[in-house]
Amino acid sequence: MPLTGLAIGCLGGGAMAQALLTGLIKSGIQARNLYVSDTRHERLDYLSRELGVNGRESNRDLVRESDVVILAVKPQVVEEVLKETGDLFQPRQTLISIAAGITTRFIEKFLPEPVPVIRVMPNTPCLLGCGASALCSGTNAGDRDRERARAIFSAVGRAVEVPEGLMDAVTGLSGSGPAYMYVILEALADAGVRVGLPRDVALLLSAQTMLGAARMVLETSEHPGRLKNMVTTPGGTAIAGVYALEEGGLRVTLMRAVEEATRRSRELSGGLK
Ligand SMILES: NC(=O)c1ccc[n+]([C@@H]2O[C@H](COP(=O)([O-])OP(=O)(O)OC[C@H]3O[C@@H](n4cnc5c(N)ncnc54)[C@H](OP(=O)(O)O)[C@@H]3O)[C@@H](O)[C@H]2O)c1
Prior knowledge:
Blueprint: E1 8-11, H1 15-26, E2 34-37, H2 41-51, E3 54-56, H3 59-65, E4 68-71, H4 78-85, E5 94-97, H5 104-108, E6 117-121, E7 131-137, H6 143-154, E8 157-161, H7 167-175, H8 177-194, H9 199-220, H10 224-231, H11 237-247, H12 250-272
Parallel strand pairs: 1-2, 1-4, 2-3, 4-5, 5-6, 7-8
Antiparallel strand pairs: 6-7
The structure holds NADP nicotinamide-adenine-dinucleotide phosphate (NAP).
């Protein structure tokens, strides 16, 4: 395990930091090797009490004590925090940023050369250990740093590597994707109610069906088209439903959603850097 014995610190102790720390503990990392800093005292108390991790009032102390620092503050706070702590980083450390829209080049401006930086775009299901994360490398990051980041984000779901130029596309697909899935699930539950099912039953069946279908794709590695063919018998119910989806333009609507979100991500990150 590339994380064994390393001190891992979350700079910022919000929702995402909590998810990552929880996932790391579940994956076998000892809480005594985990650190968190936050401006809110109650947040540190809570995380120390619930997870047994080490709370630090000072971001500078956290950076001094960590081998891997996960930058987990809101994007608007990144510059302030890097101005406060940047001079402390050393090449033996890995700085992993999860701040949406902040480039590795921007982060590197505040660090002494050659500190390795990895940028990650996770999504909210990380909170349940079921996230989808994409990571990319800054100028000085090597295999050691990528392995560290992969191990951390594999502890809260699945992680893939992409070139940095694709991070807006990742934001448009998996970063924003949970919202699309919730809209689809709500619509399916409404549809179930329309054909006579109680709402709670309709929602449970819809959500479990989405989860099951996603697992079929991930765990069988079959093409989704082939899996769809397997449930569409000639003249049957599923193909009648698929016909209605095609008539309604579902595919192109989803493609447009990802395209629009990607465009918006580019627009927003252009304003941050
Ligand atoms: N949540 C997601 O699903 C998600 C997905 C992808 C990427 N991200 C990225 O993950 C990062 C964290 O998101 P989050 O949802 O975990 O945010 P969050 O819950 O707001 O967590 C950030 C934490 O940092 C604290 N903080 C603020 N200023 C600080 C400072 N100067 N030093 C130390 N701590 C400070 C905040 O305290 P206050 O509340 O008092 O400000 C808060 O507890 C963001 O950059 C976001 O873009 C999140």
